[in-house]
Design goal:
Elements lengths: L2 H27 L5 H8 L1 E5 L8 E3 L2 E3 L1 H12 L3 E5 L4 H9 L5 E7 L2 H4 L2 E3 L4 E3 L1 E6 L17 E3 L3 H12 L5 E4 L4 H9 L6 E4 H7 L6 E6 L4 E8 L5 H15 L2 H10 L7 H13 L1 H15 L3 H12 L19 H7 L7 H18 L8 H12 L1 H13 L7 H7 L6 H4 L10 H21 L3 H11 L8 H6 L2 H11 L7 E2 L1
Parallel strand pairs: 1-4, 1-5, 9-10
Antiparallel strand pairs: 2-3, 5-13, 6-13, 7-13, 8-11, 8-12, 10-14
Helix pairs in contact: 7-21, 12-13, 12-15, 13-20, 15-16, 16-17, 16-20, 17-18
């Protein structure tokens, strides 16, 4: 090669190197995207959660749960969609967020000093107390020492296990088992089935779950009040954390957080033990006569039959000849004039009463303004079914005049009772009404509806709990036997073998 050609090749090589260097410099000079910017660019917020009544579950209308609603609200706040992932165990939720496999962990996580060393927590959004749970019919533990009289089991990796470790320093004889397969809801089910004696549950968990297992009771609080918060991957990049701070500040100021807590927990404590047990008995003894009618009427009006059945139970306890002191009659308690207006002459006939009640409720639902979102519009329609649309509208106007939101059931239900006070009802179009009654009415119907939904749907929590317990029996190695073993058979087997839990024992 001539010297001239070598010079040209050298220049080309240097030129190429210069271009590459410039490109690399420009790339490196560009500021890297923050975590929040990356989330917005992808359009998706990845959320870790758990499948439980207090967090996330699949309802007939799709995903639901307090954490689902709250995380979805945050995703909307930052302009993206939320994508939910459910790790196999609670411990995995914490480990996955610690290693950055998701953006946030929204799983009813208690803030503890130990966790704060490895995770970043958002501002707290709810306060709970850890409580010892036992079943009625067994001896109630009154002190920590009493827990040694039975099988105490908690979920591995939870703050409940941390609480017990601290107590063990004061009570060295305290022993318990940790379960790395089930969540607290599964352990509560095992207590209900008399398969273990005690567990620890957060106060919000037991508030919801006691409606489904009314024989569960709180023995005593085992911790001071604790804060629930979302967990984030610890990083120098605080962009996502700052976004959560802004979010929680805004939903506290505009009352959306208060409304969300009320939506999920505000009515759950209103169903007492006796009412719960009676309702369950009537599901078995009375509902079968009318269930197909409820289902048919619900299809006609595009409603959930269990909501109609819950209304019917609140109205008449599913008694076709029921009559009130004011003269309304039948399962759905229609007045004579209302039944006639709806096109039903014989309001006592169960089919007429239920179909008429379904139509009447649907009419109330349609009258609720479009500005009222779900599920608030359903609760307001229930109130209108009970007290009349005119009185409901009076309450909404009072709510608006007092500077609160007439489209939110949380605000309206606080103003409905004012309709019984002269100072307030004389300012309204329809006058006096016993405004406290529709508030209680809605709370009861919601509880009956939730219970019916729980009892008529395929329950994954109970199935998983029983599967885990059955696998504790070493003599049951045949998969067919395991899948066919019923709860009574399992309990009998347990009594025969005097089963001791095979999970890790804390000594």
């Amino acid at each position: 090669m001539t010297q001239h050609k070598k010079t040209i090749v050298t220049l080309i090589s240097l030129s190429g190197l210069l271009v590459t260097t410039v490109i690399l410099f420009e790339i490196m000079s560009q500021p890297s995207l923050s975590q929040l910017e990356r989330i917005k660019k992808a359009g998706v917020l990845t959320v870790l959660t758990r499948s439980a009544p207090t967090t996330y579950y699949e309802s007939t209308n799709g995903p639901a749960g307090f954490e689902y609603d709250l995380a979805s609200l945050f995703a909307e706040h930052i302009g993206v969609a939320a994508s939910f992932k459910i790790p196999a165990t609670f411990s995995q939720v914490l480990s996955d967020i610690q290693t950055g496999k998701a953006d946030i962990a929204a799983a009813g996580i208690t803030v503890t000093e130990r966790r704060k060393k490895h995770l970043t927590f958002t501002p707290p959004y709810h306060e709970i107390t850890e409580q010892i749970i036992y079943r009625t019919g067994t001896q109630r533990p009154k002190t920590t020492q009493d827990l040694s009289k039975g099988i105490l089991e908690v979920v591995k990796g939870t703050s409940h296990a941390d609480t017990l470790k601290k107590l063990k320093k004061v009570h060295p004889k305290l022993q318990w088992y940790t379960n790395d397969t089930l969540d607290t809801d599964g352990l509560l089910f095992l207590i209900n089935q008399k398969l273990i004696d005690f567990t620890i549950a957060d106060s919000n968990q037991i508030t919801l779950i006691r409606r489904f297992y009314p024989q569960l009771h709180v023995a005593f609080d085992i911790s001071p009040p604790r804060q629930l918060a979302w967990a984030l991957h610890s990083s120098p990049d605080l962009s996502l954390y700052r976004a959560t701070v802004d979010f929680f500040e805004s939903i506290k100021q505009n009352k959306k957080l208060e409304q969300l807590i009320d939506r999920h927990y505000g009515y759950a404590e209103k169903l007492n033990y006796a009412t719960n047990c009676t309702f369950r008995q009537h599901i078995k003894s009375r509902l079968p006569y009318y269930q197909k009618i409820f289902e048919s009427a619900a299809i006609e009006q595009n409603l959930d039959w269990r909501l109609l059945a819950a209304i019917g139970y609140q109205e008449s306890h599913w008694q076709k000849n029921a009559i009130s002191p004011t003269g309304v009659r039948g399962i759905m308690m229609l007045t004579r004039s209302t039944a006639k207006q709806l096109g039903f002459e014989n309001r006592i006939k169960p089919e007429n009463s239920i179909r008429g009640g379904a139509l009447y409720f649907k009419q109330r639902l349609k009258r609720i303004p479009a500005s009222v979102p779900a599920p608030d519009r359903t609760w307001m329609a229930l109130a209108a079914y009970n007290i009349g649309y005119g009185h409901l509208n009076d309450a909404r106007l009072l709510t608006k005049n007092q500077g609160r939101n007439p489209d939110k059931w949380l605000d309206v239900k606080k103003h409905l009772p004012l309709l019984s006070q002269k100072k307030w009802y004389q300012k309204t179009k329809y006058g006096y009404a016993r405004g406290h009654e529709p508030v209680l009415y809605v709370e009861k119907v919601r509880n009956y509806y939730d219970l019916l939904t729980w009892l008529t749907e395929d329950n994954s929590i109970e199935k998983q709990a029983m599967k885990t317990q059955i696998e504790r029996l070493p003599q049951l190695n045949n998969e067919t036997t395991k899948s066919q073993l019923s709860i009574p058979q399992y309990k009998n087997q347990q009594q025969q073998t005097k089963l001791t839990p095979l999970f890790e024992k804390v000594r």
